[in-house]
């Protein structure tokens, strides 16, 4: 006798697949925003499940800041081949060259905010009407109120006070010309759910997430990898540490954690015991209490 | 290894009045279940200090948007997550003011359970009635009534008993099948996660224990088989040249390969050839699974069709009666045209008649109305351009629900429960 209920992971999977299929059914030209991080990797694997045995019917769009970890780029190219899916790259460097975006200066300069320009340009250039992302509501306060189907005006902006109510599993993707949607199929997943799913489904992940030895510096409590884009201050001396990354952002701003976890199983154990959120290692969220809300309003991921 | 891998998922909604401690209760649940991280707590401690509080205001954990933090109120539905070794929880945290009925309805639409907070000093108030009515209207299967702020009434048993009695008398008029009660203090933590030492007279479970054990296995309909087709999968590759799969999420009942099916609205019949997900063949599919179904016969099926069983299938009709919650700033009057979204189908429709409006605080019917304004609930008739294939909401929350979409602005303007 079967038991007619799903585990929480299976229920979250079913929900995400439903949302991904709604996107393909309701929009003309959808795309999946692929960062190389674990959330967008899970999204890509869910997309494969949703349409098997057919190929994934939309491209992966990577907004390349030019400051990626080499491991992220290597994984991206492997995955595109593995899933037999189309890749579209939007280049932040190109936006800077064209004068569309201006490089930040100073010690904590990053290309994080510049991505918004390239992202919106790429969406407009390819006429994508729905861009799926791996954002989760548990990540950050402003994300807790985000919809699955998030409407963007013709300027790509998000208006948190004027969101469409979202009821049952009825998603309203109607829009006017020039507007688009951001869709977040794994909205209801937590960091732990993502890792458990990666473990349960045996999904390959970039080596960055696993414990390894790396040359780093410690700045304002954050462990940063040395890289051509990280300017060292006078008193900063790189040293070797055994670390791993909990998120996969830009190399100069993504902090590592000291960790011996070299398997997904050990990562899950580590997260279960951890007392800090994953975004606690991201310098981009620490700029102000509403940093994420402000970036989201202007069209960020 | 079992890091909560096979837990069940419980979705619950919280509703409460402005000052009855809802945010504090959520903060308490997250805090005592160790779901708050150090950096989140540091941020809340810093904000509390900035506001001049001499305690850590746990309610600050849940106020998300800048304007909400400025005004100290919750505007929108916010979703929170926590897990215990037994279950994973999703909280739809909704504000309690009357102008936010639409948010409560939104939060309630996907919930297995509603937490209703009552201030022990005040007893049942108008908002208690409203929240309970919405839980009943949206057919939330389980309700837990938390009598909060017991610390402010000296943990008196008779105060609690009186509120329980009042609530039972009131709720007998509603359709809520499973109600539990618990006396708590969210501020101090009594009976939230840990048993209270201040209420020896209370022999029941803590709130957390109730959340972890309430029986949710029967919340989905596993009797009436319904499969709204979302998308037709056609690989168009050499290997799968003839593959034609119907992708969708089971809305009710159980489907197995070899079974006879009826496709609506066409009325064609066939047999299930296979049920798959991600290339893996499944022996059965039940709600809320997302799967791909193939049939023995090549028949014309597209998005919006419903696969059911020959001896048990939904009705098809162009005239639909609904309980409607109007959610838009601009009122609606009779004869307004709209888009009607039902399962995976969208059709044009028109509001034919407003039979009566409900005062959701008193449950009185108001007749002879021509217009509905934001946050009003009414019984209405709509007529659609093509037939909808539906069940009553009471029978199935998925095939019995609709949203209405404005033709001009594309906004979602109403939620409807089919009678």
From TrEMBL, chain A:
The keyword Phosphoprotein does not apply. Its EC number is 2.7.7.4. InterPro entries: PAPS_reduct_dom, Rossmann-like_a/b/a_fold, SO4_adenylTrfase_ssu, Sulfate_adenylyltrnsfr_sub2. SUPFAM superfamilies: Adenine nucleotide alpha hydrolases-like. Residues 275-301 are annotated as: Disordered. Belongs to the PAPS reductase family. CysD subfamily. This is Sulfate adenylyltransferase subunit 2. The gene is cysD.
UniProtKB/TrEMBL annotation, chain B:
This is sulfate adenylyltransferase. It comes from Chryseolinea lacunae. It is an enzyme of class 2 (transferase). Transmembrane segments: none annotated. CDD domains: CysN_ATPS, CysN_NodQ_II, CysN_NoDQ_III. The gene is cysN. Residues 7-231 form the Tr-type G domain. Keywords: ATP-binding, GTP-binding, Nucleotide-binding, Nucleotidyltransferase, Transferase. It comes from the Bacteria.
């Amino acid at each position: 006798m079967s038991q007619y209920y799903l585990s929480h992971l299976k229920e979250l999977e079913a929900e995400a697949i439903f949302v991904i299929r709604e996107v393909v059914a309701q929009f003309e030209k959808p795309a999946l925003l692929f960062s190389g991080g674990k959330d967008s990797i899970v999204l890509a694997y869910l997309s494969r499940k949703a349409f098997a045995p057919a190929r994934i019917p939309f491209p992966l769009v990577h907004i390349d800041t030019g400051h990626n970890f080499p491991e992220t780029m290597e994984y991206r190219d492997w995955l595109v081949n593995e899933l037999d899916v189309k890749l579209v790259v939007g280049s932040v460097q190109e936006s800077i060259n064209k004068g569309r975006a201006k490089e930040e200066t100073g010690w904590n300069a990053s290309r994080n905010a510049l991505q918004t320009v390239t992202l919106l340009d790429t969406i407009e250039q390819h006429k994508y009407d729905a861009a799926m992302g791996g954002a989760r509501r548990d990540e950050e306060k402003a994300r807790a109120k985000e919809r699955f189907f998030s409407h963007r005006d013709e300027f790509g902006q998000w208006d948190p006070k004027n969101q469409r109510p979202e009821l049952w599993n009825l998603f309203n993707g109607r829009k006017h010309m020039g507007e688009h949607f951001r869709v977040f199929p794994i909205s209801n997943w937590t960091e732990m759910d993502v890792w458990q799913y990666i473990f349960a489904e045996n999904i390959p992940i970039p080596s960055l997430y696993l414990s390894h030895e790396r040359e780093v510096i410690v700045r304002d409590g954050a462990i940063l990898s040395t890289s051509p884009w990280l300017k060292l201050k006078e008193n900063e001396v790189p040293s070797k540490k055994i670390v791993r990354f909990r998120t996969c952002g830009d190399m100069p701003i993504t902090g590592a954690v000291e960790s011996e976890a070299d398997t997904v199983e050990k990562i899950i154990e580590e997260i279960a015991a951890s007392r800090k959120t994953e975004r606690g290692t991201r310098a981009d969220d620490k700029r102000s209490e509403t940093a994420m809300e402000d970036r989201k309003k202007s069209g960020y991921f | 290894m079992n890091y909560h891998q096979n837990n069940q998922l419980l979705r619950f909604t919280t509703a409460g009045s402005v000052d009855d401690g809802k945010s504090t209760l959520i903060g308490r649940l997250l805090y005592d279940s160790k779901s708050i991280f150090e950096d989140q707590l540091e941020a809340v401690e810093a904000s509390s200090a900035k506001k001049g509080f001499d305690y850590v205001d746990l309610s600050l954990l849940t106020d998300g948007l800048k304007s909400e933090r400025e005004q100290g109120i919750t505007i929108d539905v916010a979703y929170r997550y926590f897990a215990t070794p037994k279950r994973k929880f999703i909280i739809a945290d909704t504000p309690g003011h009357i102008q936010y009925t639409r948010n409560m309805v939104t939060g309630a639409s996907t919930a297995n359970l509603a937490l209703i907070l009552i201030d022990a000093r005040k007893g049942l108030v108008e908002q208690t009635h409203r929240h309970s009515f919405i839980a009943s209207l949206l057919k939330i299967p389980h309700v837990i009534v938390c009598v909060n702020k017991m610390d402010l009434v000296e943990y008196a048993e008779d105060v609690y008993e009186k509120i329980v009695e009042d609530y039972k008398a009131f709720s007998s008029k509603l359709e809520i099948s499973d109600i539990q009660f618990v006396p708590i203090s969210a501020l101090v933590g009594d009976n939230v996660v840990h048993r209270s030492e201040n209420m020896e007279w209370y022999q029941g479970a803590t709130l957390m224990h109730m959340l972890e054990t309430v029986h949710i296995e029967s919340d989905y309909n596993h009797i009436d088989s319904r499969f709204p087709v979302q998308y037709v999968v056609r690989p168009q590759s050499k290997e799968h040249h003839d593959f034609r799969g119907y992708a969708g999420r089971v809305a009710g009942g159980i489907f197995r390969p070899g079974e006879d099916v009826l496709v609506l609205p066409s009325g064609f019949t066939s047999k299930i050839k296979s049920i798959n997900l991600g290339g893996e063949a499944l022996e059965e599919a039940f709600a809320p699974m997302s799967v791909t179904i193939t049939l023995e016969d090549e028949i014309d099926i597209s998005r919006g069709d419903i696969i059911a069983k020959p001896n048990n299938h939904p009705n098809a009709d162009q005239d639909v009666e609904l309980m409607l919650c109007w959610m838009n700033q601009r009122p609606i009057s009779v004869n307004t045209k709209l888009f009607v979204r039902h399962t995976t189908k969208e059709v044009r429709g028109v509001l034919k008649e407003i039979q009566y409006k409900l005062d959701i605080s008193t449950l009185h019917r108001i007749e002879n109305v021509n217009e509905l304004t934001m946050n009003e609930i009414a019984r209405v008739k709509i007529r659609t351009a093509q037939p909808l294939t539906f069940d009553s909401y009471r029978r199935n929350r998925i095939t019995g629900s609709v949203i209405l979409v404005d033709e001009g602005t594309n906004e979602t303007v109403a939620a409807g429960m089919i009678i």
